[in-house]
Amino acid sequence: MIADQAHSGKNINLPEPVRDSSMSVEKALDTRRSTRNFSQDHLTLEHVGQMLWAAQGITETRRNFRTAPSAGATFPLDIYLVSGDVEGLKAGVYRYVPKSHSISKTMDEDRRDDLHSSALGQGAVRQAPASIIIAAEFEKTVRVYGQRGRQYVYMEVGHAGQNIHLQAEALGLGTVVIGAFDEKGVSRVLDLPREIVPLYIMPFGKPR
Predict the structure, then answer these.
(1) Which of 120, 125, 110 has the alpha carbon at shortest distance from 183?
(2) Which pTM does this prediction carry?
(3) Per residue in 14-38, is it b (16+ CB within 10 Å) or e — as a string?
(4) Residue 180 and residue 195: Cα distance in Å, rounded?
(5) How far apart are the C-alpha atoms of 56 and 101, rounded to whole Å?
(6) What is the mean pLDDT of residues 185-194?
(7) Rounded CA gap, 21 and 170, in Å?
(8) Residue 205: other Cβ atoms inside 10 A
(9) Strand-pair partners of 34
(10) Measured CA angle at 156 (ends 93, 163), to 5 deg
């Protein structure tokens, strides 16, 4: 059913995010490490949904507040998923839709090899079953705060990246923040609009 939805291009509703767990924030902070080697185990849609929610999920619907703070609630970040080995989800590129906690397919086929090439050959990108790419539309924040807004966007991507790291720990997964990549190459892999700039690549999966 989910795979059929993905193939048709319709939004795929993700499992409801878990908002409590047996791992404390303190424990997740203590055990957080960068993971660059992943097992061959596939991910589940629950894993994917929880990680995307941690990045930019809605936590207060009336004012659209999210899991990561945003200057002036301008929300410049866009979250993309490059799926390669997720149970029940066809390989491809998906955009996260926070308001409906869903994903929308933007490209077909497994793009991990292309993303790996654009990430300067870093093995974690090819090896991981999926990657989250955090991109930003700087103008959303700049139009409110002027050029200072660019700094706020860079701060915000750090907030989201740490959320993803801590969520991975709570799920028994691993991830790593990758900032060294060919920006134009990643944009081509994801077919990003000109105004959207990729900032982080975060491959994730079960540590090996």
Answers:
(1) 120
(2) 0.93
(3) beebeeeeeeeeeebeeeeeebbeb
(4) 20
(5) 9
(6) 97
(7) 8
(8) 27
(9) 175
(10) 70
Measured between alpha carbons, how far is 156 from 20 in angstroms, rounded to an integer? 23
CA distance linking residue 119 with residue 112, whole number of Å:
10
Where on the phi/psi map is residue 64: left (φ > 0), alpha (ψ -120 to 50), or beta? left
What Å distances lie between residue 161 and 89, 144, 147, 186, 202, CA to CA?
A: 23, 23, 23, 18, 8
Contact 94, 83 (CB under 8 A): yes
d(CA 137, CA 127): 29
- pLDDT at residue number 164: 98
DSSP per-residue codes, 37-88: -B-SPPB-HHHHHHHHHHHH-EEETTTTEESS--GGG---EEEEEEESSBTT
**C-alpha torsion 109→130→19→71, nearest 10:** -90
* Residue with the two structure tokens 């999210």: 66
Give 145-202 as a DSSP string.
HTTHHHHHHHHHHHHHHHHHHHHHHHHT-EE--B--S-HHHHHHHHT--TT-EEEEEE
Phi, psi of 124 (to 5 degrees): -60, -30
**Amino acid 61: pLDDT:** 85
**Residue in the structure block whose two tokens are 């490209």:** 107
Amino acid code (one letter) for 34:
S
Predicted confidence at residue 142, as pLDDT, reads 98
- Between 9 and 184, residue with greater pLDDT: 184
